[in-house]
C-alpha cells in the first residue's frame, strides 16, 4: 500500500496513468493533426513495455525508475513555458508523496532544506478519514458534496520565514471503486451519514479501512497565500485572548514574521492607562514581546512632555514608520536614550497607536535589525487586522472595568443571593476544619450545565453623535470669538483671519489634528490675549463678552464642551434608568427560579442570566423553567424599550437604543474567580458563547449593510428552528397584549469570523402601551 498521509483510510491506493493513457488513445485515433497523433502513439507504445503504468502499482520506487518517461508522458499537463511560474506537481492520491515538479516547486523545496518533509497542516486522523469517505460519495455515488476543507502546505523559505500555500487538487485522472469486502450503503444510510459528519465510528462502520480502491494520480497546484493564512492566524490569536486568564501566545511573533515577510522581527505592545497617563506592559508577555522603541520613547522625554504627547495622540494618532534608523535626524541621534536603539541593534521600526473613539488604548511596535524591513506598504497591511486588535483590547478593557465595577458594587464580600448557599457550605467546611486544628484548602466554587440568557439595550451611534457635537461646540466657540474680535479694533485682524481658517477647516476639510491645533492656538495666543484685555481698561461691552466666553470654556481643554457634556449626561441617565428597571424586574425573575444574574453598563446596558439545577438543587427544575425565564426576558426588554420611549424626550440629547436577545441552547459552566471575586464562564469550549456575544453588537443582515438591531424593534438571534418556534409563541403572546406589532421579520445573520448559521427574528414595538 502507498505511503498515505494518514495510515488509516478507507482506500487502497494504486498509482496508475490509465485514465491519461486513455486520453492519449483518443488523440491517437481522433485528432486531425498528424504531429499530435504521432506524439500520442509514440508515448503509448513506449508505455506498453511497462504495463504497471496502466495497471497500477504501489511501489513508490517505480516513480524514480520511470521518472523520465513519466515527465514526457505528462508534458502536456506541465508546459515547459510555465515551469518557472507555476507551483505544481503530480501526486499519489491522498498522499504526501509528490513527483514531476515544476522548476519553481523544486526551488521552493530546495530552499526549505534537505531535511524538510512536506505535510498537510491541521488535519486530524478522524477528520481525514471522513474527508476520504466524502470523496467516495462524490466520485462513486455521485453525491453533490461541496467539500469545504481547505488544504495547506507550510514550507519555510531560505530565510526561515514560514510560507503558506493553499492546495488545489485536480482528480480528473483518478477513479474510485469498491473491493469485494466493501459495503455499499443505501441512500438512506448516506443521508444519515451526512447528518453525522462528526461521528467517525459511524463512518468507519459503513466504510471500513481499505475496503475501496483509489486508482490513478492527481495534480496538485499551490498558490502562495502566506498573508491570508497569517492574517487568519492573527485573528484567531486575537479572538482567543482571555483577559481574565491570559497565557502568552509564543507563536504570535512567528505569525507576524510570515505576515510582514520580515525574517528578523520583534513585536511589542503596551497598554495605555488613561487615569495615570502611562504605558504599561503585559507581564505575561515579558519573555515574548520586546519594547525597545517604546522604552526609548518613554525614557527620552520628561513626564510632562510624555503626558502632552499622549493627549495629542487623541487628536493626531498617525503611526511612525522609520525604514532606516541611520537616516534619522542628527538631533535625535544625539539624545542619550538613542543608545537603546543601537544597543538592541534596531535599524528599522514601526510604532502604531491603537485608537478607539479618539482615545488611546495601546501602542504597538515592530522592530528589526535589518534596515528597510518596514515601510508604508507594510504599515498598510496593518489595516486588515486593526479591527481585531481593537476587539481584543476592548474586550480586555471592558472586562477589566466590569470586574472593578462589580467588586465595588458588591463591596468585595457581597455575593448574589442565588448562589450564596454554596459559598456558605464551603466556608463551613473551612470553619469546621479550623476548629479541629486541621488544614483545609478552599475549593473552587463552580456551577455546571447552566443555560445562559443574554441581552442588551445598546445606545445607537453614540460615537457619531459625539463627533457632530464636537463640531457644534467648536463652531459656537469660534463664533463667540469672532464676535469679540469684531468689537476689538486693534490687533484683531490676524486673529480673525486665523479663526476663519479654523472655521473653514472644521466645516469642510477637518483633519486629525484640527482640534489639537485649535486647542494649542487658544491656549497659547487667544486666551492670554483676552485675559490681558480683562486686566486693562477695556470697553465694558467687550469685557462682558469676554467674561461670558470664559464661562463657557471647559478649563481642562480650553474648549467649549456644553454639547458633549449633554451627550455624556444623557448616556448616564439612560444607563441608570435601564439598569434600575432591569434590577427591579429581576426580583420577579428570581421567583420563577433562582438563578445567577449580572448586568453591566457602558453605552447601554447588557445582562447575563445563568439558570440550572445546580444553582437551586432542592427545587424542581425542568425545561419549563427556561421557557418561563426566556419569556420574562423578552417581556422585560420590551418594557425597557417602551419606558425609554417615554423618557427619552426629556434627555438633553435625543438618543435611540436598539435591543437584542441571544438564544443559546448549549450548556455553560461558570466558575467563581477568587482573585477577581466574580463569576466567569469556565473553559475554552464555553468561551465560544462569549465570542458570539461580543460580535452580535455590530452584526449585519446577511448580504446587506443593514444592522440586525434596529431602534424601536426587538431582535432575537438564535441558531435552530426549534428556538424560532419557541420565540414565535412568546411574540404571539405579546402581540395579543398589543405590545408587539404583527410585522415579524425572518433574517439571516452575516457570517462572522468562525460563526455561521445564525438566524434572527425582528419585530416592532407598538406605541403607547405598557406591559402588565
TrEMBL record:
InterPro entries from the UniProt entry: GAF-like_dom_sf (IPR029016)
Protein name, UniProt field: GAF domain-containing protein
Amino acid at each position: 500500500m502507498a505511503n498515505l498521509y494518514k495510515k488509516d483510510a478507507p482506500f487502497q491506493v494504486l498509482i496508475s496513468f490509465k485514465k491519461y493513457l486513455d486520453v492519449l488513445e483518443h488523440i491517437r485515433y481522433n485528432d486531425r493533426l498528424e504531429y499530435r497523433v504521432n506524439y500520442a502513439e509514440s508515448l503509448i507504445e513506449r508505455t506498453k513495455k511497462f504495463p504497471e503504468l496502466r495497471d497500477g502499482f504501489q511501489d513508490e520506487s517505480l516513480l524514480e525508475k520511470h521518472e523520465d518517461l513519466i515527465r514526457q508522458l505528462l508534458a502536456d499537463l506541465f508546459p515547459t513555458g510555465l515551469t518557472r511560474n507555476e507551483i505544481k506537481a503530480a501526486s499519489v492520491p491522498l498522499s504526501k508523496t509528490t513527483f514531476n515538479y515544476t522548476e519553481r516547486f523544486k526551488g521552493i523545496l530546495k530552499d526549505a532544506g534537505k531535511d524538510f518533509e512536506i505535510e498537510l497542516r491541521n488535519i486530524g486522523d478522524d477528520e481525514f478519514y471522513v474527508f476520504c469517505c466524502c470523496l467516495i460519495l462524490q466520485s462513486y455515488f455521485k453525491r453533490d458534496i461541496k467539500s469545504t476543507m481547505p488544504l495547506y502546505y507550510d514550507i519555510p523559505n531560505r530565510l526561515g520565514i514560514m510560507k503558506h500555500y493553499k492546495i488545489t487538487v485536480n482528480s480528473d485522472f483518478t477513479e474510485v471503486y469498491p473491493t469485494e469486502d466493501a459495503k455499499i450503503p443505501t441512500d438512506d444510510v448516506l443521508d444519515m451519514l451526512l447528518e453525522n459528519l462528526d461521528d467517525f465510528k459511524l463512518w468507519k462502520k459503513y466504510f471500513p479501512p481499505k475496503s475501496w480502491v483509489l486508482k490513478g494520480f492527481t495534480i496538485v497546484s499551490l498558490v502562495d497565500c502566506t498573508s491570508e493564512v497569517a492574517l487568519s492566524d492573527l485573528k484567531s490569536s486575537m479572538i482567543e485572548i482571555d483577559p481574565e486568564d491570559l497565557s502568552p501566545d509564543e507563536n504570535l511573533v512567528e505569525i507576524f514574521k510570515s505576515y510582514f515577510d520580515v525574517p528578523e522581527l520583534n513585536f511589542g505592545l503596551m497598554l495605555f492607562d488613561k487615569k495615570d497617563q502611562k504605558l504599561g506592559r503585559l507581564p505575561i508577555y515579558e519573555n515574548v514581546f520586546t519594547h525597545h522603541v517604546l522604552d526609548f520613547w518613554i525614557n527620552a522625554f520628561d513626564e510632562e512632555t510624555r503626558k502632552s504627547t499622549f493627549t495629542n495622540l487623541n487628536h493626531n494618532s498617525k503611526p511612525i514608520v522609520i525604514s532606516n534608523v541611520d537616516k534619522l535626524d542628527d538631533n535625535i541621534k544625539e539624545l542619550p536614550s538613542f543608545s537603546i536603539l543601537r544597543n538592541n541593534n534596531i535599524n528599522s521600526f514601526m510604532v502604531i497607536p491603537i485608537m478607539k473613539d479618539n482615545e488611546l488604548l495601546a501602542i504597538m511596535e515592530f522592530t528589526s535589525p535589518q534596515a528597510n524591513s518596514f515601510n508604508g506598504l507594510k504599515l498598510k497591511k496593518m489595516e486588515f487586522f486593526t479591527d481585531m486588535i481593537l476587539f481584543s483590547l476592548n474586550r480586555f478593557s471592558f472586562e477589566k472595568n466590569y470586574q472593578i465595577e462589580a467588586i465595588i458594587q458588591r463591596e468585595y464580600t457581597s455575593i448574589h443571593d442565588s448562589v450564596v448557599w454554596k459559598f456558605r457550605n464551603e466556608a463551613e467546611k473551612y470553619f469546621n476544619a479550623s476548629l479541629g486544628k486541621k488544614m483545609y484548602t478552599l475549593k473552587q466554587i463552580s456551577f455546571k450545565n447552566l443555560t445562559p440568557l443574554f441581552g442588551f439595550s445598546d445606545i445607537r451611534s453614540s460615537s457619531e453623535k459625539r463627533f457632530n457635537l464636537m463640531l457644534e461646540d467648536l463652531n459656537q466657540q469660534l463664533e463667540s470669538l469672532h464676535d469679540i474680535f469684531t468689537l476689538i479694533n486693534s490687533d484683531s485682524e490676524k486673529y480673525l483671519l486665523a479663526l476663519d481658517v479654523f472655521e473653514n477647516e472644521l466645516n469642510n476639510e477637518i483633519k486629525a489634528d484640527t482640534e489639537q491645533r485649535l486647542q494649542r492656538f487658544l491656549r497659547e495666543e487667544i486666551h492670554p490675549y483676552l485675559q490681558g484685555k480683562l486686566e486693562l481698561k477695556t470697553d465694558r461691552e467687550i469685557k462682558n463678552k469676554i467674561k461670558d466666553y470664559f464661562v463657557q470654556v471647559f478649563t481642562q481643554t480650553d474648549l467649549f464642551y456644553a454639547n458633549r457634556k449633554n451627550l455624556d449626561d444623557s448616556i448616564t441617565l439612560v444607563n441608570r434608568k435601564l439598569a434600575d428597571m432591569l434590577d427591579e424586574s429581576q426580583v420577579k425573575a428570581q421567583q420563577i427560579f433562582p438563578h445567577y444574574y449580572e448586568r453591566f453598563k457602558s453605552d447601554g446596558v447588557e445582562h447575563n442570566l445563568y439558570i440550572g439545577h445546580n444553582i437551586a438543587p432542592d427545587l424542581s427544575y425542568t425545561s419549563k423553567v427556561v421557557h418561563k425565564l426566556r419569556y420574562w426576558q423578552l417581556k422585560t426588554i420590551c418594557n425597557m424599550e417602551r419606558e425609554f420611549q417615554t423618557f427619552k424626550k426629556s434627555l438633553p440629547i435625543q438618543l435611540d437604543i436598539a435591543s437584542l436577545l441571544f438564544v443559546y441552547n448549549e450548556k455553560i459552566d461558570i466558575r467563581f474567580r477568587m482573585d477577581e471575586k466574580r463569576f466567569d464562564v469556565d473553559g475554552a469550549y464555553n468561551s465560544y458563547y462569549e465570542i458570539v456575544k461580543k460580535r452580535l453588537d455590530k452584526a449585519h443582515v446577511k448580504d446587506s449593510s443593514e444592522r440586525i438591531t434596529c431602534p424601536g424593534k426587538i431582535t432575537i438571534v438564535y441558531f435552530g428552528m426549534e428556538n424560532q418556534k419557541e420565540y414565535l409563541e412568546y411574540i404571539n403572546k405579546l402581540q395579543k397584549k398589543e405590545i408587539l406589532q404583527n410585522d415579524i421579520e425572518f433574517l439571516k445573520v452575516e457570517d462572522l469570523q468562525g460563526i455561521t448559521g445564525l438566524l434572527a427574528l425582528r419585530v416592532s414595538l407598538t406605541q403607547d402601551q405598557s406591559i402588565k
